[in-house]
Amino acid sequence: MSLHFSVLASGSTGNAIYVETEGQSFLVDAGLSGKQMEALFKQIGREMKDLSGILVTHEHSDHIKGIGIVARKYKLPIYANEKTWKAMDGLIGEVPLEHKFSFDMETVKTFGGLDIESFGVSHDAAEPMFYVFHKDGKKLVLITDTGYVSDRMKGIISNADAYVFESNHDVQMLRMGRYPWSVKRRILSDYGHVSNEDAAVAMSEVAGDKTKRIYLAHLSTDNNMKDLARMSVSQTLEGRGILVGEQFDLIDTDPKTPTPLTAI
Ligand SMILES: [Zn+2]
Ligand SMILES: [Zn+2]
Questions:
Q1: pLDDT tens digits for 46-98?
Q2: Which of 54, 57, 20, 60 has its CA nearest to residue 37?
Q3: pLDDT above 80 (res 183)
Q4: Other C-beta atoms within 10 Å of 211: how many?
Q5: Cα–ligand 2 centroid distance for 62 (angstroms)
Q6: What is the crossing angle of helices 226-239 and 196-206, to 10°?
Q7: Which ligand lies nearest the alpha carbon of 13?
Q8: Which numbered ligand comes closest to the C-alpha of 31?
């Protein structure tokens, strides 16, 4: 069995991604209420009690809202780096010491035959990091919540079979929108979120001959739309000589509905 995964929920209202392989299954973030998390698992036919653990990306509430509740209920190990653990203190309630695990940035942890690699991103949190899953030569990259994609990140995430890639906002919608300027500036900064165009440019540089699917993730509710994101990413890719549907497919994610559990 190679890697199976589902983007359970994605967007500023809450993020959670499920990844499984033989004997191991992980949740990356639990940014929705305990109840909502239960409902999402039901939709993909899995149960949270069977999880091997929860991997945390960073302490923003759209990533950790349900973590404490879920981990306490099902006695699940939580993995995060030290700075994120400190930043989560007081935000996720009591977590027993035996369920607290450290996962340093830019390290690899092995669970059975599954390698999970962490890498740092550029975002206004304590020490934000995302994950690459490696199993039997297959590679799954998760990358959202970053202001830009650095050359270093590109090296780590290149030529994956599948990506869950942030395509946060349309720059025009954001600029014209109702957000106060300070918030707009934060989103547009190097420590904010990646726009549709910037995401597409990064995709064109990291996608390779193995790449089959890219999930457009963490879309802003106020400053983006699924159709707009897909169109704008496709156009930018096309301008760089990549035909969506031929080289790889672009797939929508949703704030409330999980993508089907799929193998890569
Ligand atoms: Zn987020
Ligand atoms: Zn964030």
A1: 999 999 999 999 999 999 999 999 999 999 999 999 999 999 999 999 999 99
A2: 54
A3: yes
A4: 21
A5: 7
A6: 50
A7: 1
A8: 1
